[in-house]
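Researcher: Here's a chain I'd like modeled. Treat it as a single chain, no partners, no ligands.
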Amino acid sequence: MTTPLGLSLEQPSPPVTTAQAAELAGSYFGLHGSIAPLAGERDRNFKICEPDGVTWVLKVGHPADSAALSDLQSSALLQVAAADPELPVPRVRKALDGSTEILWTPPAADIQAPCRVRVYSYVPGVPLHTVPASARLRGELGGVLGRLDRALSGFDHPAARHDLIWDASRVTRIADLVDPGDTEVRAALDHVAEHTLPRLVRVRHQMIHNDANPHNVMTEATGRDIVGLIDFGDIVRAPLPQEIATAAAYQLADGSQGLDACLDLVRAYHVLHPLTEEEATTVFDLMVARLILIVVITGWRAERHPHNRDYILRNQHRARLGLERALSVECDEANATILQALETSR
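Model: Modeled as a single isolated chain. C-alpha cells:
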C-alpha cells in the first residue's frame, strides 16, 4: 500500500552509538561529560551532563528530514527565546562554528544521506503522564501553550507548511490506513471531514508546537508545577485552535472527568491567547482528529518497527479510550460547553 507517512516515519531511525554521539558533542559543540541515550520517534537523542552539572540534549536527526525542517525547529526556538525568555522550552546551543547544526553521515552501508546534528538545553523534570492528574497542572499547561503561541504569533519560515502527517487539520490523509472493520474510527473520520475541516479556512493559522502530549510536558518531581515543554519536532503552521485541541485530546482518557478536564486547559489558554467563537467551536472536533491520528498511525508504525513498539504505542491505549469517550458526547453539546467555559474564563 502507498502511504502518506513519509520516509522519516516509514524508515527506522539512524544508527548512532553512544561513542559516536560523544565524539560529535565534543568535536563540534565543545561538550564533554557523561552521556546516555534518550527515547525518540524519528531521531536519535542523547543526554549529555557536563562535570559542572549543566545538561544538554544532542539530537541526530533522521536522514530523511530536510535542512529546512531542521532549521525551522531551531529558528522557532530562537524566536521564542527572544519573545518570551522565561518560557520553559529548550534553548539552542550553537556549534563551535556558530551554526545551529552540523552535518554528519553515520558510517553504515545503507545510510548515504547526512544527518543533521543539533544540541538543545535539557529540560529537567518528570513527564506529566507519570504524576497524578490535577486541575492545577492542566491549567498551567494551557497557560504555557497560550504563552508559546503568543510568542510564535507572526513567526514564519520557508518550511512552515511542511508535509506533516501529525497535522490534525489534514487527518483525512490517513483514511487508507484505517482498518476497514474499525467502524468507530471510520465514522469519526467521516464526521470531522464533513463538519469541521471545511470550517478551518475561517480560523487563524500560525506556527504551533502541535505535540503537547503528556510525554512532552515536564513537571517538577512532586508533580506540583509544569516546568517545561519539549520536542518541537512536529512544529507546523496550522489552525490556531489545533494547539490546545491536541493537548486536550490526551485528557479525555485520564480519569473520569471527560470534557471537564479538557476545559481546564482551554480556559487557561484562552486567557493568554484568546480564541474567537469560530475557533472555539472547532476545538472538540480537532481533539477527535488528533485521537484518530494516534490510534491509526501508531498502530500502523508499531507493526513495521517492532523494535521500537513500546515507545510508538505509549499513547495508543489512552487514545482509544479518549476516542470512545469523545464519541459518546454530542458535538453541538461539547461546543456549547466549551463556549460557556470561555465566556467565564476572562
